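Homework help board

Subject: predicted structure for assignment chain

Our instructor gave us this sequence and asked us to write out the predicted structure in token form, then describe one feature. I got the tokens but I'm not sure how to describe them. Can anyone check?
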Amino acid sequence: DYLAALEQAFGAGDKLFSQPYPVDDEDVSQEISAVVDAGAQVIVLASDPTVSANAIMSARGGGFDGQFLLSYVNQPSNLASELGGGMEAEAIIAGFEQLDGVLTTAYLLSGVEDEDNAAVVEHVRIMEAYGGPPSSNLSIYGQSLAETVVETLERACPDLTRSEVVAAAESLDGFHPSLLLPGIDVVLSESDHAAIQAMQVQRINADGTIDSLGEPIDVGR
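My token output:
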């Protein structure tokens, strides 16, 4: 899907060079070397934090000084931990130094970068009050799903039949779970079941701060 979107945006000519990697191998140094040798100026990584960290280190080690674009699965704090080699403060700091200027996308608030946000504070309270695991990006995602399910059931009540629940879900056009980033909503309809259709582009800074660049980009309409 990532490659198809890039080809749609830029064409499938010599502007693009694609390089697959084995999904069961975290060492992508050879694949990244091929990308760097092809003269890439921008590297788009469709990979998880472990592979992305290896790719960034390999590319920098090979002399690449261009731009990285990462997908939303690469939470900055997780990626910094992978790059720095641990969860200790020194490792996180070292990891963020390697991430300076990297661009990523997001649609959820972060339990780390947005820890003082009222919605994140309430999320942490809920997790602690009801004996849940420590709050994380996964638990934030889970609460967002839960709020969406609750809204769907409230709209379907009192007729909780299959057809009414489906109709209620398809009526969620502009619903905003509390832990989504500002300007990003759940958008569903009878003909479109892709719930999240906007992403916020963010820049990671060496000091660990995150800058949102402009408004969320809506790709669904």
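Reply (TA_rk): Your tokens look well-formed. For the description, you could write something like this. The helical segments are 2-10, 29-37, 49-61, 76-84, 89-98, 118-129, 137-156, 162-170. That's the kind of observation they're looking for.
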